[in-house]
């Protein structure tokens, strides 16, 4: 608990000066608010009874002073509102950077078990609540205490009875405000949840709009949407009910305090216990002690929200990346690409069954290896161990004789190019997407890479060429085009080791041929793993590995394996026959 507080306070550190300035102006503003009625009181009780010449001069001076004070107060309020919020935004900026860079460090295992929407809300909603608390919290508490205590001391020194009358209403006000504020905030929270639901529903619908239309399910979608939309209105109704109750009730209670003070005050005046000016002073102070009550109650709520947001923030920050550089990690120079699996065993964290068991495999530099096997056998998994997307649970993998866990992650991944099974392209232009493989690449290099990947021609056939916007996730491109773009990326990266996870969805013959051609060009002089689903990629391999649930069952060239008349032959015949049909 204590270290959480320490860490929370540490976010103020770079803004110490701002915080102190903020608090200083908060105190100054509160003090001025308290002083103004005192000046009024001085004028109405003393100055007006002085000799007229003297009194006029004093009144003029005091009026000017009051104008001046109001200006100062206005500046204080401006400073708090403007710089206070900026401080909050900067703290939020720092925390957001922190959590975003933490996200970049976390491994595949972490992301396998998370929902993107929730991770995003940590960065947006939670941080907003925290920064609201961090910048409003201290000033609200200080201003409220000064105003409340200050007005109490001033009023009680004027008249005790009337002070008791005025403060008698406060317990009721506190209970009322507490109750309604809580209900209102809860209802608002629910509104936000409903809005989030609606948003995710819209997102889901729009991303899947092609599926919706293909099933002609627009009406069902509309119905689903109406339901969510209606829930939103119901929840809004509730929140407005409490909001109405909160504001109208507190307004009424404040007016009641005024009426109570006036009534009792009038009685006291008629009994000659107090002067009219005392009553005026009282009336001028009413806001000064009712407002802090509202603010402090609001603060309790704000604190809860901010703190629970902060705890969720820490929850993420406390997760240590399970794959990171070892202390003595090294950078490898001139990687050749000899890869060796030694008794490699692997199991996904949340499952208790091994996907890979005791795998032994030696691949020499520049070799072209095809991995085949039934779906779910672990081909993609095997390949994702090489760039350490997951760490082996047993055995080791070596590159050029060095255990990959001893190589710096960046260095390791810089030496491996991957074309994934489902290609991911970022929203943006074709140029941007290819450049992702080497951010420093010139336009000329990019065109070169595209030519190597057989992508140049189709790119040039677009009206905007390389500046064509490919839409979210490259929706405006065909499957084969997307794959060729991701091949171009790897050409640009130019790594000694290549992993090509062939898309299972069949390409038509023509695009299959082009993709194949660009792949072969790419594979030249690199150690290449191809997870093969197509005959053409299998035939060209120097070595074919047949992977099943039992591990590597067969190994050899196409001809050798066919001659063996084993699993490979079965797989091959199945594909070959379906091809002919
Ligand atoms: P494919 O692409 O359909 O030809 O199949 P493979 O051979 O690429 O299969 P792979 O490596 O994707 O999956 C092997 C097994 O591991 C399969 O039973 C599904 C399971 N698996 C894959 N990814 C995960 C994961 O992230 N978590 C867990 N628990 N299991 C996974
Ligand atoms: Mg796969």
Automatic annotation (TrEMBL):
ABC transporter domain ranges (all copies): 339-574
SUPFAM superfamilies for the chain: ABC transporter transmembrane region, P-loop containing nucleoside triphosphate hydrolases
Subcellular location per the Swiss-Prot or TrEMBL entry: Cell membrane
Acetylation among keywords: no
Main subcellular location: membrane
Keyword entries, A-Z: ATP-binding, Membrane, Nucleotide-binding, Transmembrane, Transmembrane helix
GO cellular component: plasma membrane
Start and end residues of each ABC transmembrane type-1 domain: 23-305
InterPro entries associated with the record: AAA+_ATPase, ABC1_TM_dom, ABC1_TM_sf, ABC_transporter-like_ATP-bd, ABC_transporter-like_CS, P-loop_NTPase, Type_1_exporter
Pfam families: ABC_membrane (PF00664), ABC_tran (PF00005)
Stretches that traverse the bilayer: 20-44, 64-86, 141-158, 164-181, 240-269
One annotated GO molecular function: ATP hydrolysis activity
PROSITE patterns in the cross-refs: ABC_TM1F, ABC_TRANSPORTER_1, ABC_TRANSPORTER_2
Membrane topology term: Multi-pass membrane protein
Descriptive protein name: ABC transporter ATP-binding protein
